[in-house]
TrEMBL record:
Annotated ranges, domain Concentrative nucleoside transporter N-terminal: 8-80
Protein location: Cell membrane
Regions crossing the membrane: 6-22, 29-50, 99-120, 177-199, 211-230, 267-290, 361-381, 402-420
Record has NADP as a keyword: no
Entry membrane topology: Multi-pass membrane protein
Family to which the UniProt record says this protein belongs: Belongs to the concentrative nucleoside transporter (CNT) (TC 2.A.41) family.
Taxonomic placement: Bacteria, Pseudomonadati, Bacteroidota, Sphingobacteriia, Sphingobacteriales
Residue stretches making up the Nucleoside transporter/FeoB GTPase Gate domain: 103-201
Concentrative nucleoside transporter C-terminal domain ranges (all copies): 211-418
Protein name (record): Na+ dependent nucleoside transporter domain-containing protein
Species annotation: Pedobacter cryoconitis
GO molecular function, a single term: nucleoside transmembrane transporter activity
Keywords, sorted A to Z: Cell membrane, Membrane, Transmembrane, Transmembrane helix
Length: 421
């Protein structure tokens, strides 16, 4: 029965979404059922079907190769820097044993953004997104704009995904807008996914198949939760239609590479800045909390991790995470939502917040694989607001709902995967 513990999580998450619904009578239960079926099929294919497993393992090895290629570029820039390697000895930065988080992560993100820009320039990315979106549109009967943005979010960043549906943003219904925002928060960009997979590989964790599965499951999962929370009551302009322009915004291949490298650098610097700022702020808050705790009990070390471990405990337990890992898993869920997923993955892969069971690692890695955090909501409102200024007020009103939907979508995927493991 322990294996089916995650069913409690599925019921708990769907029930919570139902309680938060603004129009329970209009919920499309066919959409919910078809979306759950699609999520289950994806999980079964990745976890149970050997050829698919081998394919995703192959993709995982490819991700590690991308990091190696990125290191060739960054070795030229930082080649004269001496670092402490994995063996505890001093090496030149170009040595295989070396690793500096900021340098290596920056290089990987830049290379992946360059590759995405190249694929976009030649129309490859748009065609892949369009084909998958048509399939999801047929299965779930969602609108074309919703399907496109949610599928695109599994490949590109949360704002870039909205660029693909820019012509429709002005006329999208509020339900479509929430679904689109929720999908972008539930999924994770390809470049960041590769970084997390490689962080896991360095720690001996094979996270790549889990993270790819998580991002694919998040697209229908976000549609399920958002359509329960905010059912469609208006007429969609793109219902039953999936049309995506394959036109490139770049002048030529060199322009695409240049833009990709520039965008990758901006993203990488943003990640580094957020980590420095948030981790430093957490240290400050923890220092304050510990002193407050000591006022009541000299042995009581109150901290954010202590608070997260109790606040998110019901979610971690209901998803089917083994008892030995529930408290630490709850801490990671809290770090991911309130700070960002980078900190959560860093603490998971470096074992600063250890998860010791294989099932615990599977569930928690899927649950924290997404952009759903408070800072991302601000980025999304600002980014989409630039694309469609007339929708800024709607975006602001839907921001926290999207955060909740994106978070619950990741938890739903994790619960389903835990049942099937």
């Amino acid at each position: 029965m322990e294996r089916f513990h995650g069913v409690i999580g599925v019921i708990f998450i769907l029930g919570l979404a139902y309680l938060c619904s603004n129009n329970k009578k209009k919920i499309n239960f066919r959409l919910v059922a078809s979306g759950l079926t699609l999520q289950i099929v994806i999980a079964i294919l990745v976890l149970r079907v050997a050829p698919v497993q081998h394919f995703f393992e192959f993709l995982g090895k490819g991700m590690q190769k991308i990091e190696q290629f990125a290191k060739v570029g960054v070795d030229f820039v930082y080649g004269g820097v001496a670092v402490i390697g994995f063996d505890g000895k001093t090496h030149a930065y170009a040595a295989p044993e070396s690793f500096i988080f900021a340098f290596n992560v920056t290089a990987t993100i830049i290379l992946v953004c360059v590759l995405v820009a190249i694929f976009y320039h030649f129309g490859i990315m748009q065609r892949i997104v369009s084909v998958i979106a048509k399939g999801m549109n047929f299965i779930m009967r969602v609108s074309g704009a919703e399907a496109l943005s949610n599928v695109a979010s599994a490949f590109v960043g949360q704002v870039e995904a909205q660029v693909m549906i820019k012509p429709y943003l002005k006329g999208m219904t509020k339900s479509e807008l929430l679904a689109s925002m929720s999908g972008s928060l539930a999924c994770i960009a390809g470049g960041i996914l590769i970084v997390y997979a490689n962080m896991g590989a360095q720690a001996g964790m094979n996270l790549a198949p889990k993270l790819i599965m998580a991002s694919l499951m998040a697209a229908p999962g976000a549609l399920i939760i958002s359509k329960i929370v905010f059912p469609e009551t208006e007429v969609s302009q793109t219902m039953g239609k999936v049309k995506l322009e394959v036109k490139s915004e770049y002048t030529n291949l060199i322009d695409a590479i240049s833009h990709g490298a520039g965008e990758g650098f901006k993203i990488a610097m943003n990640v580094i800045a957020m980590l420095i700022g948030f981790i430093a702020l957490i240290a400050l808050v923890d220092y304050t909390l510990i002193n407050i705790g000591h006022l009541f009990n000299p042995n009581f070390n109150l901290s954010l991790d202590w608070i997260f471990g109790r606040l998110f405990y019901p979610f971690a337990w209901s998803m089917g995470i083994p008892d030995v890992d529930v408290s630490n898993a709850a801490t990671l869920l809290g770090q991911k939502l309130t700070v960002n997923e980078f900190l959560a993955f860093k603490n998971l892969t470096t074992k600063a917040v250890p998860i010791v069971t294989e099932k615990g690692i599977l569930i928690i890695s899927i649950a924290i694989c997404g952009f759903a955090n408070f800072s991302s909501v601000g980025m999304q409102i600002g980014g989409i607001g630039e694309l469609a200024p007339e929708r800024r007020a709607d975006l602001a009103k839907l921001g926290l709902k999207a955060l909740m939907c994106g978070t619950l979508a990741s938890y739903l995927s994790a619960s389903i995967a835990g049942v099937l493991m």
